[in-house]
Amino acid sequence: MSTSAKSAKRPYTEKQGRYLGFIQRFTKARGYAPTEAGIQRHFGVSAPSVHQMIVRLTELGLIERVPFAARSIRVLIPDDEMPAAVAAREAAGDPQPKPAGPKPPYTARQGQYLAFIQRYTRQHNYPPSAADIQMFFGVSAPSVHLMIVTLTKRGFIERIPYTPRSIRILLPAEAEVLPQLEL
Questions:
Q1: Full-prediction pTM beyond 0.70?
Q2: 154: domain range?
Q3: Does position 1 have pLDDT exceeding 70, yes or no?
Q4: How many domains, the chain?
C-alpha cells in the first residue's frame, strides 16, 4: 500500500499527525497542553506556521482550544486514531481499529459536570448555582464559567445569561448514561 493511500484513510495529513502526536504526548507527560511557542521550538518553525497549523487543526475538528487562553489546546480524536496507533496497526497488518463501543459525545470532565447538574437538580428541584458547582468540584469560578460556556456551545445545556440557577440539561434520550457521582 502506498503512502498516499495510507494517509487518504486518515482525517489528517502526515505533518498534521506529527503536530497531533506531539500535542498528545506533551499533554500526557506533563498534564497540561503545550504553548504555541513550545510547539514552535519543538518543530523549529516560525510562530505564524505553528498558529496556522493550530487554526487548521481546529477547523478540521481534530483539536479544540479556547482563544486567548494559555495552554488550552486539547486533542479531540481518540487514541486509536492517533498517528502512532495507526502506524502500529498498519505495521501489524490490521488497518482498522477495534470498535470500543459507543463513545459519549462529551469528555469525561464534561460528563462529570453534566451528571452533577442533573443530580443536583433532581435532589433540590432547582439547578445548581455556579458557586455550588465550584464548591463541589473544588475549582475556580472562571473554570466553572468556562465549562458552562463550553457545555452551552456544544448544546448539552441551555441557560439564561446573567440569571442565577437557569441551567437546564438538553441531552437527548439516546445519549449515554451520565457518570454516577456522590453528592
A1: no
A2: 108-169
A3: no
A4: 2
